[in-house]
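Students often ask why we bother encoding 3D structure as a string. The short answer is that it lets us treat folding as translation between two languages. Here is a chain of 290 residues written in the first language.
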Amino acid sequence: MRTEQEVMDLILDVAKADERIRAVLLVGSRANPHVPKDVYQDYDITYFVQDMTPFYNNPEWVEERFGKPLIMQMPETMRNPMGDGNFNYMMIYPDGVRIDLSFVGSRYVDDGEPAVILLDKDKGRGFLPPQVVPNYRYWHIRPPSPLFFYSCCNNFWWCLNNVAKGIARDELPYVMNMLNVWVRSELHEMINWYIGTLHGFNLTTGKEGKYIKRYLPPGLYAQYMATFCGSDYDDVWAAVDAMCDLFHTLALAVAFHFGFTYRQEEEEGMREYIRMVKGQARSTPSTAGR
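And here it is in the second language, the structure alphabet:
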């Protein structure tokens, strides 16, 4: 695999050789020194150009300069494009390097995401300001308000009714979607808040909670791992139970920390509903799992 310096040199050499490319910006994890470095990090690069036409939907131009990738994705040529006039090439190369290369024809808008200026041919008088001040708080956990805390709790318990009904109806795809998208997202929210109460809110658990293991105490992380399951319905029920127990523990701790009210009656009501549906499902041979 090419080194970071080799890839950066290529990115800058291409930009320096083309006068139409006026500035180069690095964003994403490589622009944030607080993110651990590894060989799997993407190179999230933005080329600011005077005229988008030569760079829009022109993979041949990119391949001539960066090489032919193993696979390329161009979101603007696919379903549901952004349609903002910009164009992005996402590429994985034979040595494992991934480059996400965006072409932008408008002035940079600082949205708070960490960014590093790699090249500015116009020295602050063109697409980029004289400097971009990284804001590492962009991805930090935000403390909940009472409304957000209640909404998280209520939606976590409410959505479990769909998981239970899906098991009873032998609708495995629906069950897995409800459990791992809707319910788990609320669990992750509560995990984030709990981690904030332990370590402060000037940190991030990463996209989809990928850094959760770093911050949860080992015992709680073991409980979290138990919330994942296979397709056997007994395993799914066990994962539901693990989710409920973990959420209860975390929610009580977060409520105590912030002085919020935890509505125990909502939890008890859904646990009673789950027990009822589970009993009915087990008594019906056609929904006994896989």
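Translate back mentally: The domain at 4-120 is CATH 3.30.460.10 (Beta Polymerase; domain 2). Keep this in mind for the problem set.
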